[in-house]
Amino acid sequence: MKNNLKEVATAAIATAIRNFYDALTNKIDRVSIRDVMRHKNPYLYRARAVVSATEIVDAVLRATVSSSEETIFGNLFFEPLALAVSGGSKSTAQGLDIDIANPSANEIIGIAVKSGPSIFNSSSKKKQDDDMRKARTRVQQSRGVHFKGIVGYGYGRKKSGSNGSYIFEELAGQAFWEFLTGEPDFYKKIADYMDGAPAKYAASFKEHYILAENRLLKQFVAAFCKEDGSIDWDKLIEFNSGSA
After folding, report:
1. Distances (CA, A) of 167 to 128, 135, 221
2. Could you tell me the pTM of the whole model?
3. CATH number of 164's domain
């Protein structure tokens, strides 16, 4: 792997970038103003003295993209890239993404790949620990080897090591990618290996974004504006919060 790491990483990144933009484009192509406004706070817009339908549509579309892209990027970029450069195999265990056999230590390393280190709350972290414990039991019973659990974050900083409450170790950013590849600078090379791939898809995504913005504005005006073009707050609030 060491000799062709750049080739493997570059190919994985090219595919991941394409898949990321495809998923994000598909997301905005399918969004509707009614679906979005069901989950927005209409009183907040009113309190901010918003009078422009365009301003609301722009805000909700940006929020939709922002809330989606982190998860999509983690799943479609960091996870497949980590799998490709690790030399491991896709894990079949719930809550884990990669299995790496380490015969010299008579162990299996189970890795859960996350985007950034702020993804967990206390309940989701406990769930991750439960999944790690189940994987450890299965590995020890079926294969008779040790199990090492790692949660790896594609970016950010995290104090490396194990928390006494959990059985897994956490590695973030440089530490995670160095663990997978053996290269201290690999975390920097990821951006270089993207090369021209982002620009290749960004223009098309922007076109879809503009179309989505126009479509949502048309839907908003039809559903929540008066004849004179002003926002019908009664109608919007009733749609969002009415009992019927």
Report:
1. 10, 11, 53
2. 0.86
3. 3.40.1560
